[in-house]
Design a protein that fits this description.
Elements (H helix, E strand, L loop, with lengths): L10 H28 L4 H24 L5 H11 L2 H24 L4 E6 L5 E5 H6 L6 E2 H22 L6 H12 L1 E2 L4 H21 L1 H12 L4 H31 L3 H14 L4
Parallel strand pairs: 3-4
Antiparallel strand pairs: 1-2
Keywords: Membrane, Transmembrane, Transmembrane helix
GO molecular function, one term: metalloendopeptidase activity
Protein name: Peptidase M41 domain-containing protein
Amino acid sequence: ALDPTASEFALEDIQDTFIKVVVGCTVGSIGWAVASDALGLDAGLRFAGTYLFAGIPIAILAIGSTAPGLLFVPVEALRAAAADEEQRRTRALRVCTHEASHLLCAYVLGLPVQEVVVDASGAPRVVVYDEELVQQPGQLVGAEQVEKLAVVAMSGLMAEADAYGKALGAAEDLKLLNSILLRCRPPIPAAKQQDTTRYAALMAWTLIKRHEAAFNAIVSALSEGKGLSECLSAAEAAEAEAAAASAVAAAAKAAAIAKETPQERAAREREEMAARGRL
């Protein structure tokens, strides 16, 4: 099921972990207070150690209420370090799938793609020029640009959801989409913003499916570390090959239809009508 708020961490797991942290810090602070007193340590050291233990849950709450993403940085780093080769390959392919959809939709819709860069973790990131521009302070978005930018913003979410059942990399895309809708001039009513989001999601999925050969070629190119021009060349070559194969298949079908007997033609037409839901 499509869940734009999905993450790799279930809410129950997060709650259980926080409870364990609270209990652990409570026990730790009490243990430190008793042990340091028994050992006759300096009162200031005992006080500082006890409150440092007890302050950990408060610090977690403070960070979680202001910048919750920071809490997952050490967890992600640990998971990345502990991941086996298969897990790393799967995560890398997921990122490539997400970014390939941005590149494909931007290219099809005529939005200029600035570059394909590699971030600190080695993952590719597609930089769409207009998306970067509309995030500048004071920059407004014309009504004629909104739908195209919305489609590109939603494409990563739809590609991940289609391939893996849920989208884990959607938070930044949804944040960008919200910024685009809020910066539109003339302003878009709330109901219209929801309609635009739905339209963008459907159109992004449609483009990915309509140009599936090009999309798969871009995913492969990104996974191989290729740049923007090579990705686009691979997409165009894949589209040309798919078009040629489709033409051959259509010609073969036309030739088979030409040789049909009346009975065979009637049976085929009934099957086609049944497939369309007319019978």
